[in-house]
Design goal:
The chain is of the alpha/beta class. It contains nine helices and nine strands. Helix 7 packs antiparallel against helix 8. The radius of gyration is 19 Å and the shape is globular. The chain starts with 11 loop residues before the first helix and ends with a strand.
Length: 281
């Protein structure tokens, strides 16, 4: 029903090259007993609503993979850096990047971790990420073509769950479910980091100012910008494709999932970074 496909558990060529170059006592990225093998993954069956949403996202982003990697993601540079700065990665860190795309967060994060599981519904983007990792000689990235909603991981198996500009595509119910899953995947004291658009529908002065600024930026672009305003107006109002939430709503969801030390920073316009921790045992 969900139509998802598991991909290479580890990038093979990069892994073999790293093994050949490593000295017998090399433990640079792995703590004893941790990170020595692939992160165990499973898939759950999606509901019809979820499966339809996932298939739509796969079709849309499959067509946009190349343009997003070279152009679209450039607008998120400051958000990506803020996400990376917020991630706490002590030696031996095991992490998952939900909605990894072509690796904007995964690739710079990997050298700081024992292993990073990179998950995205878009197969071409995952393939692009694998190619970049191979070229860079990064051997500790594990990839999986899977929807965020259907991903299952072992409880208390991770130190970091990170996601950047992916969760606003999920329904509010799926957001709550993913946060609950992330809480379960993390070890006590583990960290959650979310970079995403965080705004409401314009009811507050802050949201209104952000929306007005974006509209003004599109207006000056002429007919192409006017078309984008018309196209995005109904999508935003009805939450057809993008379903962002304001900061307060996100913080309440994260706290309700059992996290503590919830902190949110606005980086640029609607782009925010939220971090929280699972309580220590």
């Amino acid at each position: 029903m969900d139509g998802t496909t598991a991909r290479n558990p580890i990038i093979p060529a990069a892994t073999e090259r790293a093994r050949a170059q490593a000295s017998p006592g090399d433990t640079a990225l792995e703590a004893p007993g941790r990170g020595s093998g692939p992160i165990t993954t499973r898939s759950r069956r999606l509901s019809l609503r979820q499966a339809l949403s996932v298939n739509r996202e796969r079709l849309v982003w499959g067509r946009r993979t190349a343009s997003w990697d070279t152009e679209g993601s450039q607008g998120l540079t400051s958000i990506v850096q803020a996400v990376l700065d917020r991630c706490h990665t002590p030696p031996g860190t095991l992490a998952v990047d939900l909605g990894c795309g072509s690796g904007q967060v995964t690739l710079p994060l990997a050298p700081r971790c024992a292993r990073v599981l990179a998950v995205d519904v878009n197969g071409p983007a995952v393939t692009m990420l694998e190619g970049k990792a191979h070229k860079a000689g990064v051997a500790n990235i594990q990839t999986m073509t899977e929807s965020i909603q259907s991903l299952e991981l072992e409880r208390s198996s991770l130190d970091l769950v990170v996601t950047n500009y992916a969760l606003h595509h999920l329904s509010n119910a799926d957001k709550r479910a993913v946060l609950a899953e992330a809480h379960g995947w993390l070890r006590p004291g583990g960290q959650l980091v979310i970079g995403d658009m965080m705004l409401g529908r314009g009811a507050t002065s802050g949201d209104g100012a952000i929306i007005a600024a974006k509209v003004r930026a599109m207006v000056v672009r002429g007919p192409a910008g006017w078309w984008r305003i018309a196209k995005n107006l109904w999508r935003f109002a009805l939450r057809v494709k993008e379903k962002p939430l304001p900061v307060g709503a996100w913080e309440r969801l994260v706290a309700a999932a059992g996290f503590e030390s919830v902190q949110t920073t606005r980086i640029v316009q609607e782009g925010c970074v939220l971090s929280a921790r699972k309580p220590a045992a």
